[in-house]
């Protein structure tokens, strides 16, 4: 598995938040894709394992 993917590095169980609209999301599948909302990368507020 790759843990150093560009963009939002979200592993399973990670919690993400959009600084623009305040929406929160929980990652259920580790993918390494860049997650965005409102055109900005989501910020990881809780790093899953
Ligand atoms: Zn947003």
UniProtKB/TrEMBL annotation:
<keyword id="KW-0249">Electron transport</keyword>
<dbReference type="InterPro" id="IPR038094">
    <property type="entry name" value="Desulfoferrodoxin_N_sf"/>
</dbReference>
<protein>
    <recommendedName>
        <fullName>Desulfoferrodoxin N-terminal domain-containing protein</fullName>
    </recommendedName>
</protein>
<feature type="domain" description="Desulfoferrodoxin N-terminal">
    <location>
        <begin position="17"/>
        <end position="43"/>
    </location>
</feature>
<keyword id="KW-0479">Metal-binding</keyword>
<dbReference type="Pfam" id="PF06397">
    <property type="entry name" value="Desulfoferrod_N"/>
</dbReference>
<keyword id="KW-0408">Iron</keyword>
<keyword id="KW-0813">Transport</keyword>
<dbReference type="InterPro" id="IPR004462">
    <property type="entry name" value="Desulfoferrodoxin_N"/>
</dbReference>
């Amino acid at each position: 598995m790759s843990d150093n993917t560009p963009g939002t590095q979200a592993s399973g169980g990670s919690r993400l938040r959009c600084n623009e609209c305040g929406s929160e999301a929980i990652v259920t599948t580790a993918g390494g894709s860049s997650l965005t909302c409102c055109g900005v990368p989501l910020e990881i507020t809780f790093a899953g394992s």
